Queue: 3 jobs
Job 1
Amino acid sequence: MDRGVRGKNSVKPIPPLSRRAFVKSLGGLGIGALAGGNRFSIAGISENGTRAANRLVDTHHHILPPEYVRMVGRDVIGKPSPSGAPNWDPAQSLQVMNANGIATAVVSISAPGIWFGNAARARHLARICNEYAAQMAADYPGRFGFFAALPLPDVAGSLAELRHAVEELHCDGIGLITNYGGRYLGDPHFDAVFDEMNRRRVTVYVHPYVCDCDRAILPGIPSAMIEFPHSTTRAMIGLASSGTFERCPDIQFIFSHAGGTLPFLVNRVVGQANLMGHRGWDEPLRRCYYDTAGSANSAAFGPLLQLVTSKQVLFGSDFPFAAAPSVTASLASLRALGLPDSDLENIEGVNARHLFRRFA
């Protein structure tokens, strides 16, 4: 039995918020009940928050629900980044979206995620984060979608939350981090969850997080600098080597930051796999989607566009962990790469609208 899931340190399950309590808790945060007018009133934004020029879809856009920040702690949330955890509210997301022509953001919880060694707490965090995101999507149709969080490595809790997120909240996909409780994606412990996601044909967005085994290897160096891209690569290799990619062909995966170091290493990885008698790893890697967050530069795009075509690349801002000026700068860098107009159109919105049909 997984000690982290049902060990002696577990607490009694926290009951889920009632709908009335949930809406009441959001009322003071600028997200009221479903009935009523514009929840994020910002000067210069039209009633539905959309401008005619908006065409981008941002698939790497984070939220920091106040209850999540309160329970986890801003210092814990900020550890992966040298800049710490930003202050955030939904109005700031709308401001940066409208300033940069972003029509829709598919939001998610970033590192460190929701697992801190206690299953009941993780289930509670998953529920409040998912309902918060669903409320944003309901208040502003077309402006926000969301990837639902799961309380992995708690498999039973994750299966229950998966059902709730898909059937009740109508999420746009599931958001995972690269490892949970020392286990990378592809570990057999997660098989039942991946099998169910495959049955439901969900889109799975994967964000990196440092594994305990890799923490503080270089003291003073933030994990986001080096370990995050390597963590994405380890997760992808775990999914390939375990057969999860092959067993779950109806999951559409999105990997952050242009796939970490995988595009640069793919020939080495596939070559070594072939020597080990494991053939065909490159095919699922070429079926995955990859986002541009922190990677809109020639050093990252060169290897990426040798692995996949522009039809497998999605725009990602990494807001608010990338501040508003960085979002504008990343778009400028993307457009300065000299890509054909058709490739830019794919990356900036066509691919995402194909993947998330309700934003078509």
Job 2
Amino acid sequence: MKALTFNPATDSFLVREIPIPKIGAHDVLVKVEACGLNPVDAKISLWKYMVPVMNEFWTPGLDVSGRIEALGDAVRRWKVGDRVLYHGDMFRAHGGFAEYGAQDAAALIAHPHVSATLAASTPCAGWTAWRALNDKLRATAADSILIAGGAGGVGGFAIQTAKLLGLKTVIATCCAKNLTQVSQLGATHAINYQEEDVVGRVLAITEGLGVSTGLDAVGPINDILVANALTFEGRMVELVSVVRPERYQDAFMKGLTFHQLSLGAGHRNGRAAKERMLAAGRAFTELVELGRIKVPVLDTISLDEVPAALREMLKQRTRGKIVMENR
């Protein structure tokens, strides 16, 4: 089959012919219709050391929309031909930038009644945004929020989720060219982080109090900005790295609370962890089906174009979502 491979020895991507994956008893083989691109795919050279065995045939690609082509011997819930959507395990070799992918049958959800391309744009970014606001921050209409990276995939979905939860003050950072887009998504205030004092603007908007919740979807210093913009006993979710309270202004005296979230950790921490990931997927997918969540910018590319797109993604200037289609 045709696939995009990553060579850990040279940190390079190559589109080539490799064998169709062999599946285990609890796996399914999926004929990939579409696969979303995410920063974690582009940053594989930074986390490759975490994988016990990674060779030159490693295929990345986590967010997969497709049809089940074959079942492992122990799979009972699914059948050949079922359309499915999943967020893959980054520690498994057979990802979605290929004609076929392999996935644990217990980590699938039924495909939503939308196109394969639209579906594949949602898991990593959308399910993460949903878990951040609902499971971690437990945000309600009484809250206000600062979202660092409002024009990206997670940020765009987080803005929409915040509005659905009834938050009246939704502040998001972005560059100048994305201010209109972020406002159209539902942000009540869009801050140009390149030219404005983010913390100062947040304090001005909130009459000196700060926001009750925050989300850093960008890194590497945005956790500091978000934390410093929190009000007394505010809560923050960090998505990019680990929190570092010693760097935050008055973190102890303000009684701040910090959370970390890795969506893919649901694959590696038992059945309950996997179910939390899938529950977020089902809830978010229902909103996508109903048209209550929109993909702000959706660009499609071919498999051959994925390497260049991943390299560009490392510059952290991606707007919305990019999805590979098997054409």
Job 3
Amino acid sequence: MTGSSPHTPFRYDPFDPAIQAEPYPTYQVLRDDHPVYWSHASHSWVLSRHADVGAALDDPGTFSSASGIYPTPRGIDLTQLFLPMMIMTDPPRHSQLRALVSRAFTPRRIARLEAGVDTLANQLLDDATTGTGCDIVTEVAGPLPAMVIADLLGVPGEDRHQFREWSTALVQARPDEQPGGPGMSAAAALYSYFGAFLDQRRREPEDDLLSDLVEARVDGQQLSQDELLGFCLLLLVAGHETTSNLISNGTVVLAHHPAARERLVADPTLIPQAVEELLRFDSPVQGLSRTLTRNITLHGMPLAEGDNVLLLYGAANRDERAFPNPDTFDIDRPVDNQLAFGHGIHFCLGAALARLEARIAFTGLLQRIPQWDVDLTNATRLTSGPIRGYASLPITW
């Protein structure tokens, strides 16, 4: 935590590596003493209490996504850096686009994916657990969602490793990154790749999501090339990084809570509810931002139209006003109001798929390795404001 003593002014910077490594004490100070906080580092107001974050998510008319969902210094417009994405739109266009993509994530289609996800996860785990240690991110948590999203989109298997590299570069890019930096270069490479891929699907459609999107129409109009490319980027990053970091964060949490892990080994039917608690306890998406469409007053603080507001999901999920003993990891906790996947009209469409992948991955890991240790000394954290997870995480057994 950066300075909470009487002699050092409190400061919250979502990009501070020390805060990223252990954000929760800082979140406690924010919730208790600064429920509406101006962060000079991110040029945004910060909301940290569960009730405030939830109310903002449920009011897209006031808290707009159309100017971007990432805290940025003033003068940087992310909507000019990336092609149109559903996550950066408001109704009515958001409702139209979401209706199209939601066809890929119906309960029936997710259920049809289960057998394939199970096969992929077990192949990765078999390869990773032949010795006495592995990097759970590079060998399991990273490849698994990349393969699943690649299959959903119809991308050839030989390109999956490149997808992982591009995705990681994107989520670690700072919003003030200069053109030509690794994040912007990864976005450009993805747009180029998907542009050619979409052209191929127009000529030779197949039974995959991209072919469906190429043929889809909104009010009789096909989606533009830019909208299609934006879909591809969103599905890759959102569908990949959230799940990968849910698995890596959960691997650390379970290593630090051996009694809970023993219960999951003895009774795998508890794993789905454990995944819900993992989402609450160490959320893979710590926060996303909105832009105010009107002046409001919150906790006595005036917030102006056009201001950026960072909604801290990770802080809200540790709020004692919403969860008893929130800093305790409890797999028996009834968790029906955690905000790890957002809420309201922008609730994560891939939430059911992420839960499925995490359940299968932890079931297979616990079957093969009832006990493991994490080597945090040699682990590498992602350097991203909104995403909490690991670029590498060695484990031993």
